[in-house]
Amino acid sequence: MSLCCCSGASRRLLLPRLFLGQQHQVGRSLLQFRATSSAAASSSATPLSPAQQRQVTLYVDALLDWNQRMNLTAVTDEAEVMTRHVEDSLAVLPPLERAYRAQSTSHGGDMGGISLIDVGSGAGLPGLILAVARPSWKITLLESMRKRCTFLEHAVEVMELSNVDVLCDRAENVGQSHDFREAFDVAAARAVAELKILAEYCLPLVRVGGLFIAAKGHDPHDEIRNAKAAVHTLGASMLDLCTVCDKT
């Protein structure tokens, strides 16, 4: 998994940070933990407690059940959901937290109680998994489709998550709202749209000095080049580029 992040500054103020990342690529070290939901969850670089593993199991069960009635994910096997969705979401945490601690100025790098909006949440990825792994965070799931929002509300209830809100609206509308513009410490997006479009959706939601993290495909370099103008216009620039390799 390759990850890159952005930062910027002007004469008058600190600018929002953009943090970009590729989707997690499943390796053999993850496949060997696919026997059960709890085993796969505990294999992550971000370990989960038994109670958190149970929450993940409840999520996966709900996802696969509802997926029979609506299109939530193309992955229909429990083991693949664990590796391609849950592990992928958890893989975001270490680089996100490193970048936040290094770049945050208003919070002194403190990760407790930060606010994160998952833009185009879909089936709740990565937002619901991050809410399980970091219960002190305040997570907002932004999804425009009412049917998917109904699933997200159900999943939040089943998983007994008290740190999640579901917002049913379009990102371009929410970004113009006084209630949400520049209101979040972190904006995250996974497999939603091309990066230059994502930047226009997500950066207006991020406070000055915050982060934007996006999960992309195997090679994001063309998207990054194509997005540079939009990113600059919106007041952000690249922070870093790193690669996280799967163990084999």
From TrEMBL:
GO molecular function: rRNA methyltransferase activity
Biological source species: Brachypodium distachyon
CC terms in the record's Gene Ontology section: cytoplasm
Alphabetized UniProt keyword annotations: Cytoplasm, Methyltransferase, rRNA processing, S-adenosyl-L-methionine, Transferase
Claim: Isomerase is one of the keywords in the record: no
Record-linked InterPro entries: rRNA_ssu_MeTfrase_G (IPR003682), SAM-dependent_MTases_sf (IPR029063)
Name of the gene this protein is made from: LOC100824367
Protein name (record): Ribosomal RNA small subunit methyltransferase G
Gene3D superfamilies, per the entry: Vaccinia Virus protein VP39
